[in-house]
């Protein structure tokens, strides 16, 4: 998921350099949204994994 955020961030940078303000802003917002979702999912997986723990070894 971070890969998509980085791709949209690079698109935003290239669009900003070329002077496409609307595309740049939209790409940056998409990258920011995807990065936030990735962080939230990572934290949720850490919490759930910590609560489950490991099962007993037999």
Automatic annotation (TrEMBL):
Transmembrane keyword on record: yes
Similarity comment: family membership: Belongs to the UPF0391 family.
Transmembrane segments: 31-51
Sorted UniProt keywords: Cell membrane, Membrane, Transmembrane, Transmembrane helix
Organism: Brevundimonas faecalis
Protein name: UPF0391 membrane protein ABIE19_003091
Taxonomic classification: Bacteria, Pseudomonadati, Pseudomonadota, Alphaproteobacteria, Caulobacterales
Chief location bin: membrane
UniProt topology in membrane: Single-pass membrane protein
Localization per record: Cell membrane
């Amino acid at each position: 998921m971070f890969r998509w955020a980085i791709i949209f961030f690079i698109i935003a940078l290239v669009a900003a350099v070329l002077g496409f303000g609307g595309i740049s802003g939209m790409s940056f917002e998409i990258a920011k949204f995807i990065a936030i979702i990735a962080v939230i999912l990572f934290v949720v997986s850490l919490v759930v994994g910590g609560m489950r723990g490991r099962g007993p070894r037999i």
